[in-house]
Write a structure and sequence with these properties.
With 335 residues, this protein is an alpha+beta fold. The protein folds into 2 domains: 196 residues, Fructose-1,6-Bisphosphatase, Chain A, domain 1; 127 residues, D-Maltodextrin-Binding Protein, domain 2 (3-Layer(aba) Sandwich), CATH 3.40.190.80. It is 30% helix and 23% strand. It has 8 helices and 15 strands. The strands form 3 sheets. Strands 4-3-5-6-7-8-9-10 form an 8-stranded mixed sheet, with helices on both faces. The protein has a 5-stranded mixed sheet with strand order 12-11-13-15-14, with helices on both faces. A two-stranded antiparallel sheet has the order 1-2. It is globular. The N and C termini lie far apart (53 Å). The protein binds 2,5-anhydro-1,6-di-O-phosphono-D-glucitol and manganese (II) ion (2 copies). One manganese (II) ion binds next to strand 5.
Length: 335
């Protein structure tokens, strides 16, 4: 009964209590992010009512149209963390470069770097389909002043926490601070994220694949063969697989985490590194999936071990149930 009232903040604090050198700042930073996401959730739910749907008329650094909600979520997350005093640099999919932050309170060490995709699945906003926010937290390497580019470009293995929020049939937040993956549902009546699952584990093998199959003709041979293989009938290996593709990575990932599945966004002959971004999308979800017993790779190597060269770097992504990702890698490396 009591576990029903385990709030996100209480859970994070308990998580941090087991780390001897913890100062409580990570807990505070995570709750700043959670607070911003609660407000975004409210706005997503009211979106049709307040003329916030649609485009701003501008394009972001990657040449994509910016939706009003993209901008709203980006501004809100930035403000919340700028005021919070725990971050020294913010890196957003919607910003050209990182936003440095100088010390806000002298007694806080503002030691974290936060990467985020403020609104994932933007093309689904106007159609009432689940969208989300993805975030990833690193400790700074530099020792004082605003964060630097070196602080921002750290390997995924250096993440201290990561998570996402899905604004779906309900709003959920899933996070890891390196000790398992925990899920919370927003109870709108009390305005709190309440624990629904602790130490979440992704099934080792699944029966579902998620990919934009419209790109089939552009894929490398190995990827084509793997998808063909998943569609063949073979009861011993549980084939054919079902196909499920929302078009919001965060929603596809969440479903696969709960039920098992493999999500793919391969490279193709137009986009040599695929579409998804290493720092804002692939790394945080890779950290989460590994903590849940799954696997994430670019087809050849572990996502978390890819060297970050630039903030908006893209990477092919194969992520989800371990045995499925291993099978995808085998097909890709054979061809
Ligand atoms: P974003 O809305 O942050 O730009 O991300 C969109 C991404 C991801 O959420 C989704 O899985 C993928 O783009 C869909 O791309 P396609 O339309 O090419 O399938
Ligand atoms: Mn995205
Ligand atoms: Mn986005």
């Amino acid at each position: 009964m009591l576990s029903k009232f385990q709030t996100l903040y209480r859970h994070i604090i308990q998580d941090e209590r087991n780390i001897p050198e913890a100062t409580g700042q990570l807990s505070d930073l995570l709750s700043d992010i959670a607070l911003a996401c609660k407000v975004i959730s409210l706005e997503v739910n009211r979106a049709g009512l307040i003329d916030i749907l649609g485009l701003t008329g501008e394009k972001n650094v990657q040449g994509e149209e910016v939706k009003k909600l993209d901008e709203y979520a980006n501004t809100l997350l930035k403000r919340m963390m700028q005021m919070g005093g725990h971050a020294c640099a913010l890196c957003s999919e919607e910003e050209e470069t990182f936003v440095p932050i100088d010390e806000v309170y002298s007694d806080y060490s503002h030691k974290y770097i936060v990467h985020f995709d403020p609104l994932d699945g933007s093309s689904n906003i106007d159609a009432n389909i689940s969208i989300g926010t993805i975030f990833s937290i690193y400790k700074r390497i530099s020792t004082k002043g605003p964060g630097t580019m070196d602080d921002c470009l750290q390997y995924g293995t250096k993440q201290v926490a990561a998570g996402y929020v899905v604004y779906g049939s309900s709003t959920v937040m899933v996070y890891t601070a390196g000790k398992g993956v925990h899920g919370f549902t927003l109870d709108p009546s009390v305005g709190e994220f309440l624990l629904f699952s602790e130490n979440m584990k992704i099934p080792k093998k699944s029966k579902t694949y998620s990919v934009n199959e419209g790109n089939y003709s552009k894929w490398p041979d190995g990827v084509k063969k793997y998808i063909d293989y998943l569609k063949e009938k073979d009861s011993d290996t549980g084939r054919p697989y079902s196909s499920r593709y929302v078009g919001s990575l965060v929603a596809d990932f969440h479903r696969n985490l709960l039920y098992g599945g493999i999500f793919m966004y391969p490279a193709d002959n137009k986009n040599k590194n695929g579409k998804l971004r290493l720092m804002y999308e692939a790394n945080p979800l890779a950290f989460l999936v590994e903590q849940a017993g799954g696997r994430a790779s670019n087809g050849e190597k572990r996502i978390l071990e890819i060297k970050p060269e630039s903030l908006h770097q893209r990477t092919p992504l194969f992520i989800g149930s371990e045995e499925d990702v291993i099978m995808a890698e085998k097909f890709i490396n054979k061809s």
